[in-house]
Amino acid sequence: MLWIVFAFLALLAAGFLLLPLRSFGSKVSDRTDGSVSILSDQLQEVDADAERGLISPEEARAARIEIKRRILSQERKGQHAEPARQGRPASIVVWATALAVPVAAGALYLQLGSPDMPSIAFAEREAERNQQVEIAGLTERLLERLQSDPGGGPTEGWMLLGQTYMRMGRYRDAVSAMENVTGRPDASSAILSQYAEALIAADDGIVTPAAREAIGRARDMDPSNPAATYYEAIALDQAGDGAEAHDLLIARLDAANGPAPWMEAFVAQANSIGETLGREPVSLAAFAPTAGGDTPGPTAGDVAAAADMSEDDRAAFIRSMVERLAERLRDDPDDLDGWMRLGNAYRVLGEAAKAREAYLTANRLAETLPPDDPRAQEIRQAMSELPG
Amino acid sequence: MIPEIGQFALALALAIALVQSVLPILGASRGDLVWMRSARTSALAQLLFIGIAFAALMRSFMVSDFTVANVVENSHSLKPMLFKIAGTWGSHEGSLLLWVLILAAFGAGVALLGTNIPDALKARTLSVQAWISTGFLSFLLLTSNPFERVFPPPPDGNDLNPLLQDVGLAMHPPLLYFGYVGFSIVFSFAVAALLEGRVDAAWARWVRPWTLAAWMSLTAGIALGSWWAYYELGWGGWWFWDPVENVSFMPWLLGTALLHSAIVTEKRDAFKSWTILLAILTFSLSLLGTFIVRSGLLTSVHAFAVDPERGLYILGLLGLSIGGSLALYAWRAPSMEGGGLFAPISREGGLLINNLLLVVATGTVLVGTLYPLFTEALADQKISVGPPFFNASFIPIMLPLLAIMAVGPLLSWKRADLKGVFQRLRFVALMSGLAALAVWYLTEGGPALAYLSIAIATWLLLATLREWATRIRLFDVPFAQAVRRARNLPRAAHGMTLAHAGLAVAVFGFVGSSAWKSEKIVFVQSGAVTEIAGFDVRFDGVQRVQGPNYVADRGTLVVTRDGAPVTTLYPERRFYPVAQSTTTESAIRSTLAGDLYASLAEPAAEGAAQSGAWTLRILYEPLVNFIWIGAALLVLGGGLSLSDRRLRVGAPRRATIPKPQATPAE
């Protein structure tokens, strides 16, 4: 649809540019003629004014003489325009511009535009707002249940509440939810690093002493905790110790076995700190040679095909891609990343039940993962976000 | 989809502007008619596509489409619809889009309405217009894209600035831009004339309506802006010599000079090179205004230096268009032949003085506006040039201008009889002196300059009316005949009378409201009575009231005069919770004689609101409404003149024939 409108606009532009071709053979209006006609109009005006008695006959006479003198001088100069020059070369240029304008505009548009992005009016986002209200209601109820629990509420419950607050951008609430459990004996390294993250977010990215303490405790328990390591580096950098921060990030990257999603953020942070220190930038590939995924995704051809489709066709196409993925997973059920992708795809398509099923499978597979693998966390998070 | 259509339409407009920059002007020099005529259709196409883009942006604002970054930054779903629409031009990007839209509208206007303009001149003019268009469209697309997208869209928009939720302000930028940008077409005509090497009466006739249209809307825009400041800001002032005001005032001053000098070119074939220069300078000042306001230079020179991309781009455009056109002027203007000769005492001479004074006044404002920017940039010193500077330097230039303005229309073309004119104005002079005396008697003192100003404003008003009366021979001939003569008078003549009288009326307002303003700032408890300008104002406490999207503290002020009730005023302080900000809503009792103006300032101290103690600002501003009445007359006069389809002819007077009964020229 969008491309049809664009094509129409482009045609319209080209049409406007071709219109002047109609004036082939007409006469150029001449500058001298124009001046003379204005001056003779002035003469008539003088006559009319004299008749109405607005100027005296004397004045009228003087004015007429002056205007006539001007007319004469115009005629004498007589730079009459040459007869219009027109012909094939001129019209070829006009045709060329009519062609070039849509092409140039199209090229510029491809640089600037986002043709695939839908426009969504505020009124059409009722469902989204309802969902937010619903989530807010659910968190409210969860909070009440946890508070009324005589045993202080389960640790996972408080952490789930805190994470939900984090996603809603209510960082202060997240901090107070998590605070309930950070002192407990079962507070793990992951819990403490999440708590530190909430504290830092609540303070607009500044690592406060309280956050620093939480980071320290998290690292004491598990020195390899990526989140804690990351925030320790941020803290060091903010304290003015960029070099140490950089070393810490690189050391953790070196120690990683296999690719992991957190590595990208590490590399970006290390390079941003490294730039001020004048150190060579590092690349993700240096630490995770197999990063990039070996599971086949849609080919470039598929993507190009999708871009040319109508909304309905595109939805059908995506659905067929998803079904292909689901089929492949039936043959290869141990592909954790594949199940996560499938769950995400169903979630986007709005099929909550199927999405849950896929994530549940992924969750079972994730149980065998090392505890610091963020994918387990990602799955839990995705499941908590599913409606119903 | 809609924003993307806007984006594509804008890209098309830029491509068309590029073609229009080159093809017609080449056609004009080669004598190729098809190429020349392409200016017409390209100008219309440009307007169409920029219009589509503008409509797309406006639609995004109206439905609160938060996938458009500009809407997120500058709107909110809770804004009333009118202000959602006004949000379209509230931002940097949107206002520039409006800028180019108006630019294209003036180009298309010439393409469509200028049917009597010769092909070559029209082609060159529209090409020059397209150069400006290309510069600003590329600026818009490359540095300030209004259709930048965000996904996923944030829950709601960020902006709910309550101060901007005012109808006056919503309409202010479009009007101001109409004037600002309108001078672009006059500039284009001037550059085209230089390229062609020909300026004459016909050229001036073709340019006249465009100059008038631009001048009128600039006048209306400035007046509306000052009216808004007066009602909304709560300080009771109507002009602050603020840089944002000055940059719109300077093109107005020069545009006024241009308007008058173009008359001489049209009627008498003189002042040609001067008119061209004024056309270039007026638009240059409009560009300078755009640059100063849009580059962020005003907030701080250093803020500009930190993120200079946008500012430098406009600065480049500014240098290119001003430098280029002035260089062209220096090259071509000397070859322009002089026109009709005139004696120093003549209508031409009067208009020359008018022009010189207006240019000097513009220079004064320019220095006062730019000087602080220079000292901050070069010496790292923040100084502010405020009203004292402008009052001391600007007013002494304007008073002689007003005095001469009264005489000018009575002078005849080519050579005039000054003694005869003064003889006719004897009565007017006497009345002016009496007016100043009467004001002196009525007021309890004031600056001498104020009495002088009153005398001069009266002089201008009565002389203008006198001139009009002479023209229709009011009192000389039977009334019915005078009415017939008035009907025969060109509309431009009525327009001039109205505009000049309007300025005189406005001067009464300027002087009255500044020289005899009474102001009191009092700390009041409920029941306290304040006396101001003969009024007794009783403060009856403050109530909390709930508005549609704000809560307000509303004060009640009972106003009496000599015990008789006059009115009750309800000034408010409004608090907008979403925007977390407070505005002042002043309460005004408006009469022709003057405004009683009350606003509620913050509670004097912490907890003072509970004890019922408030700071109250009460002003009495005599004659202040004359300012806006005068401005309306100026615009009306311009409109009358614009509607005049007739030609202007300057009938010179023969020196050899003495006239016992002087009849005004024209």
From TrEMBL, chain A:
Cited InterPro entries: C-type_cytochrome_biogenesis, Cyt_c_biogenesis_CcmI, TPR-like_helical_dom_sf, TPR_rpt
Keywords linked to the UniProt accession: Cytochrome c-type biogenesis
Biological process, per Gene Ontology: cytochrome complex assembly
Intracellular or extracellular location(s): Cell envelope
Main localization (coarse): other
GO-annotated cellular components: cell envelope; plasma membrane
The UniProt record lists the keyword Cell wall biogenesis/degradation: no
Origin superkingdom: Bacteria
Any matching Pfam family: TPR_16
PANTHER family in UniProt: CYTOCHROME C-TYPE BIOGENESIS PROTEIN CCMH (PTHR47870:SF1)
Protein's name according to its UniProt entry: C-type cytochrome biogenesis protein CcmI
TrEMBL record, chain B:
Main localization, broad class: membrane
A single MF term (Gene Ontology): lyase activity
Entries under InterPro entries matching the protein: CcmF_C, Cyt_c_assembly, Cyt_c_biogenesis, Cyt_c_biogenesis_CcmF
Pfam families: CcmF_C, Cytochrom_C_asm
Record localization: Cell inner membrane
Membrane protein topology class: Multi-pass membrane protein
This protein's UniProt keywords: Cell inner membrane, Cell membrane, Cytochrome c-type biogenesis, Lyase, Membrane, Transmembrane, Transmembrane helix
Domain of life per record: Bacteria
Family: Belongs to the CcmF/CycK/Ccl1/NrfE/CcsA family.
Role of this protein: Required for the biogenesis of c-type cytochromes. Possible subunit of a heme lyase.
Protein name as annotated: Heme lyase CcmF/NrfE family subunit
